[in-house]
């Protein structure tokens, strides 16, 4: 058997530590701020997060231990996930590039999101929390936290962006099967939701609005904590299990550092998960300083490619601290594209800093070309990518074709962060010629400049 096709899977490959990129960033990460401009202290977050996660959020330690009980649960649910070579895709493209992908879709909920959902549920349970609330876009994160809540006997309520609630009923059903309550957002359950519905009863929702509702819920109900699937440091470091495994797996099949590492970006968790450990190995340790990091977003929600690098709220109602990030504004309502997990107005502060320093290159695609890439990948490799993951597939194909033109034997690695078997309605629209592209709505950032001026 050609060992370059599939890496050996052994539980010994599951790392014992998460990687925290914060101490290795090219400059100090800008702090979270309150709306009055003062710096957020760890104790300020205690109403919505447990102490252990707050400690991780503010940690300057490069490596943070994974508890043995949690590591064993990772193994029970399918880690390490496979590292596969897309040889049939390579042959179809007639490219000299070698294309590898880390396949997180084999996990029970079909995506990488379970990596941090388990961790967040675990640490909340240790501190006696009984109920968790969160938001979800496409439903991958909501599904993951629903399962994690079931495994740790925690009640879970999910505020699901209304556009995805309607587009993706099977994600919603999966959450119900795990025992979670699923609420279309904006909803009438919160002040934030009601204020949106008063202005527009048919509002499609956004991740920013759903975050506002979930945080308000956590703040107004006892023994309840908020969980989130992306953006903040503690979430991203949980996902580095993906890249840490990938480094070992590439070595086992005789590959060194790749030339490109690719991931799609909504808030940044799966991109960080695959890329941050490679940043440490390639850039900080000096194994391959010219490794290229490609972050892919939808053209309809162009946070990195058309946004500005400034302080903004993480949610629509302004309940979160201000984060310095690339943003198109917390009041922006994204078009109802099928990649619901990428319909977020900003990105993780650590990722934004890397983009600002030119270490990570952002690119953006229309959803029709993304679905075409997903179709091609399904035909050649047999796996239907989630619409979010298909963005990374599209970038990998473009780089492989460029390598063909230049006759370069580059190594490409991307994160296949989830399967699309619960997203077939989007693929049906594509196959029937009904899928359409959305240009960004008018991006008005004048109110952000007013916020920044006050700071």
Automatic annotation (TrEMBL):
Keywords: Amino-acid biosynthesis, Aromatic amino acid biosynthesis, Lyase, Pyridoxal phosphate, Tryptophan biosynthesis. Pathway: Amino-acid biosynthesis; L-tryptophan biosynthesis; L-tryptophan from chorismate: step 5/5. Coiled coil: none annotated. Residues 77-414 form the Tryptophan synthase beta chain-like PALP domain. GO terms for molecular function: tryptophan synthase activity. SUPFAM superfamilies: Tryptophan synthase beta subunit-like PLP-dependent enzymes (SSF53686). Its cofactor is pyridoxal 5'-phosphate. Its EC number is 4.2.1.20. Pfam families: PALP. The modification N6-(pyridoxal phosphate)lysine is found at residue 113. Belongs to the TrpB family. The beta subunit is responsible for the synthesis of L-tryptophan from indole and L-serine. Tetramer of two alpha and two beta chains. This is Tryptophan synthase beta chain. It comes from Ignisphaera cupida. The lineage of its organism: Archaea, Thermoproteota, Thermoprotei, Desulfurococcales, Desulfurococcaceae. The gene is trpB.
């Amino acid at each position: 058997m050609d060992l370059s096709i599939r890496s050996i899977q052994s539980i010994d490959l599951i790392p014992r530590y998460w990687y925290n990129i914060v101490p290795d960033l090219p400059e100090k990460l800008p702090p979270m701020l309150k709306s009055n401009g003062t710096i957020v202290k760890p104790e300020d977050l205690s109403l919505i997060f447990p102490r252990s996660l707050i400690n991780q959020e503010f940690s300057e330690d490069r490596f943070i231990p994974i508890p043995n009980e949690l590591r064993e649960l990772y193994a029970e649910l399918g880690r390490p996930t496979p590292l596969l070579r897309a040889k049939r895709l390579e042959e179809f493209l007639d490219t000299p590039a070698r294309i590898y992908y880390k396949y997180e879709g084999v996990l029970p909920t079909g995506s990488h999101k379970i990596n941090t959902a388990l961790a967040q549920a675990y640490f909340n349970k240790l501190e006696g929390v009984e109920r968790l609330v969160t938001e979800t876009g496409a439903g991958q994160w909501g599904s993951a936290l629903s399962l994690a809540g079931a495994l740790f006997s925690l009640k879970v309520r999910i505020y699901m962006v209304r556009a995805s609630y309607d587009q993706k009923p099977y994600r919603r059903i999966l959450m119900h099967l795990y025992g979670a309550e699923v609420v279309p957002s904006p909803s009438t359950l919160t002040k934030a939701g009601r204020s949106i519905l008063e202005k527009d009863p048919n509002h499609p929702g956004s991740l920013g609005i759903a975050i506002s509702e979930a945080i308000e819920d956590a703040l107004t109900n006892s023994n309840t904590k908020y969980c989130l699937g992306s953006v903040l440091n503690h979430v991203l470091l949980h996902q580095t299990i993906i890249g840490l495994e990938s480094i070992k797996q590439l070595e086992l099949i005789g590959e060194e550092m790749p030339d490109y590492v690719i991931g799609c970006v909504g808030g940044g968790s799966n991109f960080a998960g695959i890329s941050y450990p490679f940043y440490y190995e390639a850039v900080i340790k000096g194994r391959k300083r010219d490794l290229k990091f490609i972050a892919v977003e939808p053209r309809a929600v162009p946070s990195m490619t058309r946004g500005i690098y400034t302080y903004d709220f993480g949610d629509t109602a302004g309940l979160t601290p201000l984060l310095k990030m690339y943003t198109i504004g917390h009041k922006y309502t994204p078009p109802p594209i099928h990649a619901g997990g990428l319909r977020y107005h900003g990105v993780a502060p650590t990722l934004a800093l890397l983009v600002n320093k030119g270490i990570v290159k952002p690119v953006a695609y229309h959803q029709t070309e993304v679905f075409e890439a997903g179709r091609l990948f399904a035909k050649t490799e047999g796996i239907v990518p989630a619409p979010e993951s298909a963005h990374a597939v599209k970038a990998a194909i473009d780089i492989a074709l460029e390598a063909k033109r230049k006759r370069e034997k580059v190594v490409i690695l991307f994160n296949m962060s989830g399967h699309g078997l619960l997203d077939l309605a989007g693929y049906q629209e594509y196959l029937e010629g009904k899928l359409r592209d959305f240009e960004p709505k008018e991006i008005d950032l004048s109110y952000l400049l007013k916020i920044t001026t006050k700071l």
